[in-house]
Amino acid sequence: MPIFVDKTRIDGKTYTSTGHSLGDRTRIVLEQAGVVSDQSTLRDVSLPLRSQEQTDFDHKDVIRYRTSSGAFLIDYSHGFPVGRFEAETSLPEYPDHQDLTYRIDSAGQRAEVKQAADWEHRRDHIRRHLERITGKYPSPMKRVPLNPMISEEVILNPPEVSRPLLRRKLTYQSDAESRVPAYVFIPLSETSERKQNSDQSPAKTTVPYPGVLCLQQTTSAGKDEPAGLQGDPDMKYALELAEAGFVTIAPDYPSFGEYTHDFDADQYQSGTMKAIWDNSRAIDLLETMPEVDPARIGSIGHSLGGHNAIFTAVFEPRIQAIVSSCGFTSLSEDDLPSWTGPRYMPLIATSFENDIRKMPVDFHELIAALAPRPFMACYAEKDDDFSASGVRHVQQQAESVYKLYNSESHLQSVGVDAGHSFPRVSRERAYQFLTEHLKHQPRPNK
Fold first, then answer.
1. How many helices (H) and strands (E) does the chain have?
2. What is the Cα–Cα distance from 370 to 333, expressed in whole angstroms?
């Protein structure tokens, strides 16, 4: 006879600040495993959290625990937990990654994609094929308490901007082994600035802003570049978007900036998947902030950050709009070995022998997998890293999938006559795009 579990039978308080609430059993396991953060160099600051007391019942989550043959699901959407097991079906091969007009059905037969429901099957195949080169996306049990710790808060008064900004330097716990350094920018009111100047904590805005995950390019400066503290001034999009009225977070990519990381010793199959997980945890952090509307979160990045914005969004449905600057092209026009270093996806070399004919996925599919979410590709005609013609072809092919959702206008491209860069004209278009699709109107300057 089944036992129905309600709130009276749950074993304790909620133990997380993320969208996936965990019971006391998880806390005990983590404590016994010795998950302890090094707080010796940072002051422990209790940040206001939006979801601290919410449970899985309140979130109506569907939690997946993956196994080698499928996934155990706990579904809270009915007000009580319903468990089931979903067997993982065989993963069909797609010989032509640029042809998005069909899917392989459960009988192994080619079936035409006629409507959005048909595409959902191939979207699942694309996600699973991407995991063949990045490694598996972690299960919910990888989510440990974020335990954010602030090391610095600075009030900025950018010229020609009507509001001051709070720049917060912090780290957050990504998994049991690593903390991620990041900058967070928060638009403030004049009242907030006066409180800060009187040695009080800055007041929080009463109206939540959209949040944007801002991902760095390949640079030793790490998060400092999108924060506008060093590096290329055309890459300070975390700062500029905050000036436009977004809450932004710019994490270090593993091994860049202040983020020391040993790729050989970690539990991830690629540096790319480690970064994807760190980005998911950054979104968890945004969701806990009262200044952020968790229903309006986007992502932007250039080069390394450009394709990581795409990769993260494939696994992260919470990202509602994506901008990739000089971040991809058709893999058939690219240099596959350049993707295979320890920081990136070594499985391309070890499992697929740097052979485009053996690759399980291409960017045509990855962009189409984002549909109907808004996606903008900013590309450069003279880009020596990512062919502009390949970008245009990817976008052209992906348009057929966006049409299935009547969302052709959500797929946008901006090309400039320049090299591998993110010039102001492209950034301004990108910011307008995020503003439009995250339903946010910047306040006018005084």
1. 11, 14
2. 22
Report H helices in 198-342.
237-243, 271-288, 304-315
Q: d(Cα 398, Cα 410) in Å, to the nearest integer? A: 11
- 222: Cβ contacts below 8 Å, ≥ 6 apart: 181, 216, 252, 253, 256, 257, 258, 259
Residue 180 has phi, psi (to 5 degrees) of -105, 125
- Cα(204)–Cα(140) distance, rounded to whole angstroms? 30
What's phi and psi for 39, nearest 5 deg?
-105, 15
The string of pLDDT tens digits covering residues 222-256 is 999 999 999 999 999 999 999 999 999 999 999 99
pTM confidence score: 0.81
The SS3 assignment for 437 reads helix
Q: How far apart are CA 46 and CA 286, in angstroms?
A: 15
Indicate the residue type of 424. R
Interatomic CA distance for residues 61 and 31, integer angstroms: 25
**What crossing angle do the helices spanning 271-288 and 116-134 adopt, rounded to 10°?**
120
**354 in Cβ contact with 340 (< 8 Å):** yes
Chain segment 105-115, per-residue pLDDT in tens: 988 899 999 99
Q: Please state at what angle helix 304-315 crosses helix 271-288, rounded to 10 degrees.
A: 70
Spans of all domains in the chain? 62-126, 141-190+207-438
Structure tokens at 428: 């301004």
141-190+207-438 under CATH 3.30.420.300, yes or no:
no
Q: Quick count: other Cβ atoms within 10 Å of Cβ 386? A: 24
* Whether the predicted pLDDT of 43 surpasses 50: no
Q: In what order do the strands lie in the sheet with 411-416?
A: 149-156, 165-173, 179-187, 247-251, 209-215, 292-302, 319-325, 375-380, 411-416
Confidence of residue 204 (pLDDT cuts 50, 70, 90): low
Q: Are 386 and 327 in contact (CB under 8 A)?
A: yes
Distances (CA, A) of 315 to 145, 273, 310: 20, 10, 9
